[in-house]
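Sample entry (145 residues):
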Amino acid sequence: MSFSVSLPVRFQDVDAGGVLFFGRIYDYCHQAYEEFWGSEGVDRAHFFAGAEYLVPIAHSEADYRRPIRHGDRITIRVDVTRVGRASFTLRYHVTGLDPGDLRVEASTVHAFVDRRSMRPIPIPDPLRSILLRHLLREPAPNLSA
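Predicted structure, serialized as tokens:
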């Protein structure tokens, strides 16, 4: 089951050419990530700053398909594509108003680590349950084809 959020493209996020500055896509994806957890009733303040664990990004990548410009409204679909013992993978499909208007495909791998030792720990069961409930059971359609 996917999660989606729609966001406006802000002026402060574009470059001199009026196109989304390449690194800002991660800000938008992270905003969708935060909304995902919030939609599941997770206390985001605790999750991101108050827990005994941290959830840093271990890997990220993005493929830019079409420009995103100031004034566009984009939709970010978040798919959970893998849930491991101590990490999980999210894939983001960023589109314009039309779901077939693929702008960016991105993915992030998040690892649960102990806050003090920074060593991997198992994903806490309540959070694992949420991730598994959203796990994409079949490959997401390739929107770039």
